[in-house]
Amino acid sequence: MRAALASCRHLRNRMSSNGIHAPGPIPFSSRLKEGRALAEDVWSIYNVANLPADCINLGQGYMNFAPPQWVKDAATQALQGVAENHYSHPKGRMRLRQAISQSYGPQFNRELDVESEILVTSGANEGMYSVFVAFLEAGDEVIMFEPFFDQYLPSVTFNGGKPVYVPLHPPAASNKSPTSNEWSIDLVELRNAITPRTKMIIVNTPHNPVGKVFTREELQGIAALAKEFNLLVMSDEVYDCLTFDGKEHVRIANLPGMWDRTVTVGSAGKAFAATGWRVGWLIGPASIIRPTLAATTRIVFCTNSPLQEAAAAGLEQADQRGYFATQRAEYTERRKILTDAFDRMGLTYTLPQGSYFILLDISNVNFPEDYPFPPSVLGRGRDFKACWFIALEIGVSSIPVSEFYCEEHANIGEAYARFGFCKDVDTLKKAAERLQKLKNYIQ
After folding, report:
1. Residue 171 DSSP code
2. How many secondary structure helices (H) and strands (E) does the chain include?
3. Backbone torsion region of residue 184, taken as left when φ is above 0, otherwise alpha when ψ lies between -120 and 50, otherwise beta
4. In sequence order, what are the residues at sequence separation of 6 or more whose Cβ sits closer than 8 angstroms to the Cβ of residue 109?
């Protein structure tokens, strides 16, 4: 036995000296660290597995109600077919591409080519990832407005890109009734962020988590810089059907000279309360769609076929059913349930003019420093502690907004918690009632 062990040690030493590594963990790619992919993310902390069973989840942005019955019926019908249950074309099923063309063509003031200007993707996120695969070289810089949708960061770094952060400036502390429009961009800051390595700007309107609907003037300023420095613009518009108070949703691709450098991102999940379907789409010029198709073909090959048919039916019938107008009215009612609750407590929040999130100022929420916070929350921003405290003591979960910032600017986000109103009315009323207990913890 001793001889065998000695022989093994000798072999291991000889392998090391010959450049052959002894058995051990194989190093993973550094891009996982750079994109925060290995860190315990906010969704892992504030989920049903970690929170009390009766905690009302207003943190994660999925609905607790089903898609419209007529859309579900279309899904059921598609499942009865043959071709609908097999591979679709990597570009997307023709029926859905035609429905997108007919629905969005008038919004882009052009006839959209179903063969070259539309790409169906496995959710909006996979579509955006495919654009990064198709266009980023190692070291290319991508400008992101903060707070940013957290998936942008790893998607950029996984493809060799370098994120560059430009914060939206929150309303002045003296403003006790701000709207999302008052979260402002500084075009001088944006210009100063552009370098010879800048390749792309990500615009998210309506915005998650602020609820900001970028104005035409703001988008014109961004567009001018994109044209001056020859930048690609990814316009994440998955909440395009959710704007409030008569706010105009402007598509940056429609501005002069922007169609050829803009890819617009859409989502059936957001449009039809079907986030688990993972059906999204990209709209843009052939010069952007063609290389992105090459990428998405290798990543997923194609998106699930029967639910593409259902999404197509949704778009085909939405106008005649007055669906999006009804949906806006329903979400306006849901938004009011939460804002009324915050008003009764005298708390400051940002009134969103788009999407389905409200940012609540939690800087005055007082919690014991020795509260039994879990290790996942300790060492994070103050908002992580406040959100955890609210979830356990009030029974309503939210998301700390510093998660959507780089470390340098995280202090901006620490003042806010994100509450989603993409829930049914009864759930929101129950949450609003519980939230009144928060008055006991306001400084």
Report:
1. P
2. 16, 13
3. beta
4. 254
**DSSP letter string, 265-318:** EEEHHHHTT-GGG--EEEE--HHHHHHHHHHHHHHTSS--HHHHHHHHHHHHHH
Rounded Cα gap, residues 319 and 323, in angstroms:
6
Contact 206, 289 (CB under 8 A): no
pTM: predicted TM-score of the whole model, two decimal places? 0.91
Q: CA gyration radius for the chain?
A: 24
pLDDT tens digits, residue range 221-258?
999 999 999 999 999 999 999 999 999 999 999 999 99
Measure the CA–CA gap between 77 and 58, rounded to whole angstroms.
33
Report which of 440, 42, 123, 165 is spatially closest to residue 302, judged by C-alpha positions.
Answer: 123
Question: Which residue's entry shows tokens 């997108």?
Answer: 100
User: Looking at this protein, which amino acid is placed at residue 248?
Assistant: E
Q: Return mean pLDDT, the chain.
A: 92
- CA–CA separation, 179 vs 62, rounded Å? 23
Q: Give the integer Cα–Cα distance in Å for 270 and 403.
A: 22
With b for 16 or more beta-carbon neighbours within 10 A and e for fewer, the 185-217 pattern comes to: bebeebeebbeeebbbbbbbbbbbbbbbbbbee
44, 293, 388 from 13: Cα distances, Å: 42, 49, 51
Q: Is the pLDDT at 15 greater than 50, yes or no?
A: no
CA distances from 400 to 284, 303, 391, 411 (A): 34, 32, 11, 11
- Return all residues near 130 (Cβ < 8 A) that are at least 6 apart: 121, 282, 292, 295, 296, 299
Closest CA to 98 of 85, 113, 87: 113
Amino acid at 91: K
Name the nearest CA neighbour of 380 among 350, 413, 422.
413
Which residues contact residue 418 at a Cβ distance below 8 angstroms, ignoring those fewer than 6 apart? Answer: 59, 209, 357, 358, 359, 360, 398, 399, 400, 401
**Which pLDDT score is estimated for 352?**
98
